[in-house]
Structures are given as C-alpha cells and as structure tokens.
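lol ok so funny story. i was supposed to be doing the assay writeup but got distracted and ended up predicting the structure for this chain instead. priorities right. anyway since i did it might as well share w the group, maybe its usefull for someone
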Amino acid sequence: MATGGTSLPTFHSWVGGREVEGRAGLRASASPSSGEPFAQSSLLDAAQAGDAIAAAQAAFPSWSRTSFRERTRLLDRLRQAVVAEADELARLIEREQGKPAAEALAAEILPSLDALAHLSRHAEDLLRDDALEGQQLLLAHKEARLVYAPIGVILAVKPWNYPWAQSLPVVASALVAGNTVVLKPAPATTLVGLRMGSLAREAGFPDGVVNVVATDDAVAASLVEDPRVGKIVFTGSAATGRKVMAAAARNLTPVVLELGGKDPAIVCRDADLDRAAKGITWAAFLNSGQTCASVERVYVEKPVAEAFLAKVLEEARRVRPTGTAGGGEMGPLTLERQRRVVEEHVADAVAKGARVVLGGTRPDGPGFHYPPTVLVGVDHAMMVMREETFGPVLPIMEVGSLDEAIRLANDSPYGLTASGWTRSEETARRLQDELVAGVVTINDHVSSFGEPTAPWGGVKGSGMGRIHGLLGLREMVQPKYVSLDRGRGPELWWYPYDAEFAGLMSGAVSALYSTSFPVRVRAQLGLARRARFWRRVGPWRILANLDKLF
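and the output, tada:
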C-alpha cells in the first residue's frame, strides 16, 4: 500500500511475488453504505497483466514438483494468516462490498477457512493415483493408473458479491493441485482481492505462484484470451460467462463457469411453516439478495399459502438495515446499477398486476440501500420471475399442486440451486429427483456452499463444471492414463497382418464376446491351436486372467 497523489490510500497488484504499481491509472473503491470513495487501486496495463501470466508460467515447473506436504504447509500458514486477520478482513468486506461484518465472517471467512482446512487434510488422498484393473483379456497384463496431473496457470476471474469466499477456496484448490494462479478480482471489490495477494505473500508462497491483478475490463479480456492460461474459472453473470467461453474457445482453453441463478423454493402443504418462513426469508435477503443461489422465486401450495405469507412478513419485518442501533442484518446493495435493476424488476411486476406487500421503495439517504421486499400476485410473465434480480426481493406465487410447483420451478433458463420444504421423505425424494439444478436441498437453502465436501455449480444457463469438494478439486487437474508393460515379446496385434492374424482376429470376436457359452468355448479352443497366439500371449497371461474369459 502507498499514499498516492490524493488523500486516498493506494493499493497495487501482486505480480511475481512483489507489489507492482499499475500504469493504467487509478480506480477508486467506494463504500456502498455512503457512495463515497475510501481507497484506490492502481490498474495494470495489458503488458503488466501479461507479466502476471508470465510469472505464473515461470513458477509452474518448480511448484508442480513440490510435495503435497510442502503445499499444504503453505496452505496452513495462509489459513493461520486469515484467522489472525479475520475481523479486519470482515470489516474490509463490509466497507467495500456492503454485507455486515458479522455476515462476512459467517458467509465468507468461515467457509473459506473450512475449505483450506479440508484441502490441507484431504487433497493428497483425493488426488492420489487410481490403480485400474484392465478388463480386456489381451490388455489385462498391463499395469495401469489414472494420474491427476496439474494443469498449469489457472486464471480465476471472481465476482464482487462474495469476493473472499468465491476466491480463496478456488485459489487454494488450484494451488494444492500443483497449479499456479492469476486472480482477477471484480472492480467493485478489488481491495479484498489484493489483500488475498498480500496474505499469500506473507504465508511464504514462492514468487509467481500466486498473482493478483487489478485491471480494467479491456485488459481482463486479454487475460482470458492469453494462450498461456491453462484453465479459466469464472464466476459472474450468464452474459459475461458466454463472452468468456467464446474468448476461451479461440485457444480451446477449458473453463469452469459458475453463472447466475433464479433459484426456486417450493413450500409443500405439509411443510414446517415456521422453519420454511425463517429459512426462505434468510436465503432471500442474505447479502441483500446478491447471492447467485438466493431464493428468487417461491411456489407455495394453496392450502398453506396464506399462513406462509403471514410468517414470511413477520420474519422480513425483523430484518434491519445496517447502521441500526444494536446492529443490523442487511447492508446496502454493492452497486447503484444493481439497485436500478431491482427497481426495474419491481416496477415491471407491479405494472403487470403484482402487489407489493412489504418494501418496494428505495429509502432516502446516502448509499445504495433497498428494503426487504415481498411481492404476491406474481406470474412468469414478469421479469422478477424470469430474470435474475440479484437483490432483496422475494416474489411468492400460489400453486394448486406439487406437480405445478415442480413444473414452474423447472421453467427457467437457470439451474443453480433449488430447495423444497416438506416433512415427507417421499416428497423430499421426489423433489431431489425432479428439480433440475446443480444443488437441491430439503428444508434449507444456500448453506451447502459452506460445506467443503459439497460441489458447487449449476446446469443450463447457470454454467458448467464445479468448484468445491472432490469435483471442484478434480477441475484443477488433468486426468492422465498411464500404463506399464513388462513383457519382452511383440503383442498379438502387431505386424504382420498375415492370414494367421486375420484368423486370430475373427476367432477373437466369438471367443471374447459371444453370448453363447458353447460358441465361446469352441472359439477359445480354436485360438489355443494357433501358434501366433501362444507365442505372443503365453499361458501365464491367460491363467492370470481366466475371469475375463467367462
């Protein structure tokens, strides 16, 4: 950090193990609570951003050869650095992103620490070579393994809504798998990302292994198109995700895309309404609704709709804005433009017949606040039921049956998460089977993101690939099949292709795959009479793999 020509403190990118002052100007970080800038970051130009990829590429050969013991030792040091600064980090997230500091601890710091601890304890076992037993009789003598090899440079382009929890677990997964990283934080939460770079440096990661770059959008696009990048992990809107995928396709760079959501909650007629109302209210207004897995649609069965709505309104009225005496549960929206999206969706719904039963009007005063808002009388003709709102708006739609609820829940271009609220195990299984989403939870919503063994990702327009858990860790490696043959002579199928070879291949079809047992035995005896078969296969190989014959 330095003090620039203004009174604002200035922060810089981390490239090759050192702070690098950008040559492309300065960008202010503003508090969503006031709209006033409180710090700034210098922006790298295209050449400097390219230097970050070059540094990561140069560091990869030695880092990929380090032992798991050394990698996890450094992850443990990074974890302890986060623990030591947890409260300070939470305050930084509150100041730059807007969520309350207590919520930042619960939803950002703690899940990231869980992820680091899980990777430190289990990554080596999860990425251990898998021994494979051959099933083809003529190949079964080979020793085969599936090896999980590091990819190279991982470019992580991460969002502003969870700038710590969305970034650190991905960075840690890439590192423990033997990759190097270039992290590009969102413009609105650049300072949080740069702090991650400084903590990685303090933890002792070698130069170039962890790089964090502050850039404008044009330079960020050049990073995505850089052929030195081995894989891209992007979290953001579906529209930007499509652009990332198109740019990555120029170099056939693989991508993990965690995109938007329009996540439904189904409240069944047998639900515990107190639990459903509390859980859905929290999942709708957590982080001011700026969660890709927020509850953005509720379908409630008619017999319990009135009672459920009354309980939701009771819960929602208790949600206080930050700055309230004694605390507050909900901060401002991070960006003014996001508040305008929320207002547009509410206005569209009202114009098409919806009723606002709580909230719905921006408050006076500074910052980007918007109140908890509940809508009824909604339908799928409204933007608020079709497009991602990404704000504190909870539309509730009454339905006649569970069948209708499931149909409407699946009637969306998105498929990130979904939840069902029921006391019935049979209904729960049906919801788990029939809801089209990457994550389906029963009697809860969103919180599986905090479980380090649970994969996270969606289907349809919500993206592809996974972060977190075993599947997220396997996204950071290249599966490589390796085999070893200790034989000395030629294989049965090698040249020459003479008449004897033709007869062997014809007989092998029936010997190995005929569904008639007598036909298979006759064909196997026929193979046994051929000299080439015994010369190149041998009796010991057959005896060792007799189970493959029958």
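Residues 46 and 531 are 67 Å apart (CA to CA). The longest helix spans residues 101-126.
back to the writeup now i swear
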